[in-house]
Amino acid sequence: VGIDKGFGFWLATETEAQISGDVWGDEMPDGNYMYAYFLTTPPPPPPPPPAVKPMIGKPKATPAAPVAGKKFTVRFPVTSSVDKKPLKIGTAECKTTVAGKTVRHKHTFRGGVLKATVKIPKAAKGKKLRIAVQVTADKTTRKVFTFKVKK
């Protein structure tokens, strides 16, 4: 259309009586005025929020080291790369192995803490427990932690 800033307009109506031929009319706005309509460009949308990358912190273990034949629980603090606060969104996975063999475990991810509990096999004395963790929000972070199993 070629209009880039705005336009003005007015409205006129007219009607004619069929029998008498009288004509009535009205204009908007009254007098020698026009309505002004200005075109504006909306502001650009805000930039998307930064992508959240999970930050997996130093583990806290109970007991301090895994013991053969006992339960071993590790809590990993997980924070957001954006605001450094506990990460409350996303998903987490764990894989636990002793001497390369998979060991069953249970894990939860709540309130910025990934908790993994594993029953250490009795035959694992002196071997290495490996816990591979993965946390995904907008991005994914993976870390591997190794613990020596005590007698």
Key words describing this protein structure:
151 residues; mainly beta; 13 strands; rod-shaped; single chain; 5-stranded antiparallel β-sheet; 4-stranded antiparallel β-sheet
Protein architecture, described:
It contains no helices and 13 strands. It has strands spanning 6-9, 11-16, 23-28, 35-38, 54-56, 60-62, 71-80, 91-98, 101-102, 105-110, 113-119, 128-136, 140-148. It starts with 5 loop residues before the first strand and ends with a strand.
Order of helices and strands: EEEEEEEEEEEEE
Strand count, sense and barrel status of the largest sheet are: 5 strands, antiparallel
Q: What Rg, in angstroms, do the CA atoms define? A: 36 Å
Low-pLDDT residue spans = none
Structural class: mainly beta
User: What is the helical fraction, as a range of percent?
Assistant: under 10%
Secondary structure tally, helices: 0
Strand content: over 45%
Termini separation comes to 85 Å
User: Which whole number gives the mean pLDDT?
Assistant: 93
Count of individual beta strands: 13
Global outline: rod-shaped
